[in-house]
Amino acid sequence: MIIRTVKQLWKERGDNVWLFAELVIIAIFLWQAIDPLYTLNRVKNIPKGFNPENICRVYIHEYYISDKEYDASVDDSRKTQYASITSIFNNIVSLPEIESYYGGFCIPYGVTFTTIRLYYNENGEEDNGEGRKEIEPYYYPASRGEFFKVLQIKDIKTGQYPTQLQKGEIQLSRSAAMELFGTTDCIGREVENEHGIRKLKITGVYEDFQPNPYMIPEPTVVANYADNPPEFISLRLKEGVDRDSFIKRFNEELRPTLRVGNRYAGTMVDFESVIEENMYNVTHESKNRFQLFISFFALFCAFLGIVSTFWIRTNDRRGEIGIMRSVGASRRRIIGQFVTEALLLVSLAFAVALPLIAHLVIANDFAQPTDSITNEQLARYSEAFATAPRFAVITVITYLIIAATAAAAAIIPAARACKTGIADALHEE
Predict the structure, then answer these.
(1) Which of 256, 254, 253, 251 is nearest to 268 (CA)?
(2) Most exposed of 143, 191, 204, 281 (fewest Cβ within 10 Å)?
(3) At what angle do helices 13-44 and 388-419 cross, to 10 degrees?
């Protein structure tokens, strides 16, 4: 069967060369279309590293001169505003339904991202020698409250929630500690910030978490930032408290009373709504939505291209099918030959396309070995979707899609042609 099929393909090489070239192009194009779908799916399945359930968010807003609610008689000095924010903050966090709270400026899955540059000199010298190491992790400045308890992020050694940080103290994520020190045993060491001030003392190392849904867990650092009042309050409710009912009561009954000077509490929302709104607004979401649209459109176009090409090719050989039937070939044998031809063409085209696809993978840095990645978390998750397994899985998926589509496009018209009378089929020849 295979030898006869190869001879048949060679006999019709003039027509098959164009189909072969089309399959090579479709294989490369389809691989690049499936790649982002696979990668996004894998990244979204990475554990968040924190628990967003049962958390609420309240922003503390300000009335400006242009607002009709603005009170011109209020002293708007920095000291007064700080006192106003503190008063509103204390009134909210003292509610009996609150288990823990965090006031700050950035939070995982938020729309605002901040980084900070940290330095450590393992030789204890102040020069910029080889012993000086540097990282630039995501930075979460905690104004007040318990950042870790609200998000339920635990210390890697004690398994407990780290306590509230004092001024001049920081905590590193596991991957940040590994990248800077090569170990998580770094409590008590001091690092310099980007201004060259050796003030930041490491008091703990916590488990990694995702900064946003489209990223793997990256190095992060949490530091005390009590000099400025918080922009928002994140609240974790006690077990048994109905979050929806609490939010409704807060917005209808309590929020109107939470105004001090020209500062006031905004509408309380659940954390899932904050995530959804922020991700809709950030650039990552827009790019990924567009990429998904392009990928699905590419899959649709590739499907139509393969189907139409093989359908026309098989349909044009109705006369040949009539001859095969006239010499006693069974319907199953005829369909089997056309399917074998289609799969053989697809396999040959894929063998030519694979080196070109591999070149694209290497050129885009997707094939780097994990042992060369300093970020421990990145290396671990890269094994799943950024190296050889990613290439292999996407290649197999691409081949199966093209092969299944080509087989279906050969089976249907061949089966229909077999139902045609032998005389009518021979007339086509």
Answers:
(1) 251
(2) 281
(3) 130
Q: What pLDDT digit, counting tens, does each position of 115-128 carry?
A: 788 878 776 655 55
Integer Cα distance of 151 and 103 in angstroms? 12
- Domain end residue (candidates: 234, 256, 282): 282
Contact 333, 61 (CB under 8 A): no
Distance (Å, whole) CA 149 – CA 171: 14
Q: Could you tell me what percent of the chain has a pLDDT over 70?
A: 75
- Regions of the chain short of the pLDDT cut 50: none
pLDDT tens readout for residues 65-90: 888 888 888 887 888 888 898 899 99
Residue pair 234/107 in contact (Cβ under 8 Å)? The answer is yes
Q: Which distant-in-sequence residues (6+ apart) come within 8 Å of 322 by Cβ?
A: 417, 420, 422, 423, 424, 425, 426, 427, 428, 429
Amino acid identity of residue 81, one-letter, is Q
Instruction: Provide the domain limits for residue 129.
Output: 55-282
DSSP E strands: which ranges in 307-413? none
Final residue in a domain of this structure, among 251, 282, 313 = 282
pTM of the predicted model as reported, rounded to 2 decimal places:
0.67
